[in-house]
Specification:
The chain is α+β, with helices and mostly antiparallel strands. The chain contains four helices and six strands. The strands form two sheets. It has a four-stranded mixed sheet, with helices on one face. It is globular. It comes from Gekko japonicus.
Length: 134
C-alpha cells in the first residue's frame, strides 16, 4: 500500500484556507474531490471565518465534484502532547448551513459520538459528510 501511495501522490501543497486562492501562488485545475479532515476548526477563529474558508476551498472543486468533510462538533480545545490548542465550536446545523452556503448539496451525512478520554479534547461528536458542488 505504501508503494502505491508513493506512486499516486505527485506532490504535497501548502494550503491556506483563509485565502481566496488557498494554493496561491499556484493555480491548479479544479479537482474531482477534496478531502478536509479536522482542519477548518483549527484554522478558523469564528463562524464567519469558517464559512469563508469553505467558500475558499470550494474554488478547488470542479462543478459536480465532491467535498468530503470531517468536522468535530462542540469542541473548544484539543491537546497535542502537553500543549493545548483552541478550536472553533461548531454544531451540526452550522456545518450544514456553511457547506450549503459554499455552493454544495449534501448527499450523505453521518454523526458519530466520540468516546475518548476527556483530557485530550472536549468534543462531543464527529460529523462526516459528502457534498456535491453545484
Amino acid at each position: 500500500k505504501e508503494e502505491k501511495v508513493r506512486r499516486t501522490v505527485k506532490r504535497v501543497l501548502k494550503c491556506d484556507v483563509t485565502q481566496p486562492n488557498p494554493l496561491a501562488p499556484l493555480s491548479l485545475p479544479p479537482a474531482d474531490c477534496l478531502l478536509s479532515a479536522l482542519c477548518l476548526e483549527g484554522a478558523c477563529k469564528d463562524l464567519p471565518a469558517y464559512r469563508a474558508a469553505l467558500k475558499n476551498i470550494s474554488s478547488l472543486v470542479k462543478p459536480g465534484g465532491r467535498l468530503v468533510l470531517l468536522a468535530i462538533l462542540e469542541e473548544t480545545f484539543y491537546m497535542v502532547g502537553q500543549r493545548q490548542f483552541s478550536c472553533l465550536y461548531l454544531d451540526r446545523e452550522s456545518v450544514e448551513e456553511s457547506v450549503k452556503e459554499a455552493g454544495f448539496d449534501i448527499e450523505w451525512l453521518e454523526m458519530s459520538q466520540l468516546c475518548f478520554p476527556g483530557t485530550l479534547y472536549d468534543a462531543k461528536e464527529a460529523c462526516v459528510l459528502v457534498a456535491r458542488k453545484h
